[in-house]
Amino acid sequence: MNRKRAQRLLTALAAGAFLLCSLLGWPEARAAAYRYYRQQGRVRILAGLSGYQEAGSARFVLYHRPGDGDLAPLILAHAESVYDLVVSHVGYRPVGRVPLILYPDRTELRAAYGWESGQSAVGVYWRGTVGLLSPKVWIAARDADELADRFRRSNPIAHELTHYVLDEWTDGNYPRWFTEGLAQYVEEMATGYLWLEAGASLDQPLYALSELTERFDALPNQPLAYRQSYSLVAYMAETYGEDGVTEVIARLGEGAPFDRAVETALGRSMQAIYADWADWARRHAA
Ligand SMILES: [Zn+2]
Predict the structure, then answer these.
(1) Is the pLDDT of residue 98 over 70?
(2) What are the two backbone dihedrals, phi and then psi, of residue 154, each rounded to the nearest 5 degrees?
(3) From ligand 1's centre to the CA of 24, what distance in Å?
(4) pLDDT tens column, 208-219
(5) Distance separating alpha carbons of residues 237 and 169, to the nearest angstrom
(6) 88 C-alpha to ligand 1 centroid (Å)
(7) The pTM is what?
(8) How far is the CA of 6 from the centre of ligand 1 (A)?
(9) CATH 1.10.390 applies to domain 173-286
(10) 180 C-alpha to ligand 1 centroid (Å)
C-alpha cells in the first residue's frame, strides 16, 4: 500500500471510530468494536475446520474429527454438567450454543491459534471459541473407562467456559489476571484440579498488582502469575462472598472500568484489596 492510500485509510478509520464513539458513547463503542473483533475471530476459526463433524447437546456444539467421534458423548456430557456452575459464578447465561472444537493433535491446535512450536496447552479460549486437545493425546489410559474417569477429574472445560462466558458478558472488559483467576477458581470447584508448580509458591517476592494488570503475559514466572491470580480471586470470594465477585462482574458487564467496578461492588479499592491479600498471603505462606 502506498503512503497516500495508507493515510486515507487511517483517516477513514479514525473518522469511523469518532462517529461510533459520538453516536454510542465510549463504553458502548468499545464493546461494539470488541464484539465485531470477537465475531470475526470465531468465523475465521470455524471456517478453518476441514474434515470435522458436528455433535450437539442442549447448550454446546462440538466439532471433532471422525477419529474422536467416540469421545463426543463424554465431552458434551461433561460440558453440560459444569455449565450451570460456570453461569452462576459469572452471573450470565451465554446466548446460543457454545462452540467447542476438539483438535486431534498438538500440531493442529497450534496451527489453528498461530502458536509457536514450544507453546502447548490442553485447552484454550480465543475470540468466542473454545479449543480442546483430544484427551487421547494427553491422558495415558488402558481403556475407555479409565480415560473417561481421568478426564472428568482433570480437564479444561470449566476453565475455558468461564473465560468464554465472562468475555461474552463484558465484551473483553477485564484485566487478564482477573479472567485467569476466576477461571482457575471455577475449574477447581468443578473438577478439584488446581495448577500448582514449585515456582508458584507464594513464599517469595510477589508480582505487584500493576504488573499483573499491565503485562500479565510477559511476566517471566507464569506459574506464579497464575497462582497469584487464583489466590486473589479466591480471597475476594472468601472476604466479600461469591455474590461480591458476581457483583463486580455485573458492573464490568455495564462497561465500568475494573477499578470502579470493584470499588462500587465491594466498597473498597482494588489496590487496598490487593494489599489486604498480600498481608494474608505472607502470613499464610510463613
Ligand atoms: Zn485460562
Answers:
(1) yes
(2) -155, 100
(3) 31
(4) 999 999 999 999
(5) 19
(6) 18
(7) 0.91
(8) 37
(9) yes
(10) 5
Q: Which amino acid is at 154?
A: S
Residue listed under C-alpha cell 490487593: 274
Give the Å distance between the CA of 286 and the centre of ligand 1.
Answer: 28
Query: What is the whole-number distance in angstroms between the Cα of residue 56 and the centre of ligand 1?
Result: 24
- The C-alpha cell at 33 is 468494536
Tell me if the domain spanning 48-170 has CATH number 3.10.20.600.
no
CA 179/CA 169 separation, integer angstroms: 12
Partnered with residue 132 across adjacent β-strands are 102, 123
Give the model confidence (pLDDT) of 75-93 as tens digits. 999 999 999 999 999 999 9
Pairing of β 53-56 and β 60-64: antiparallel
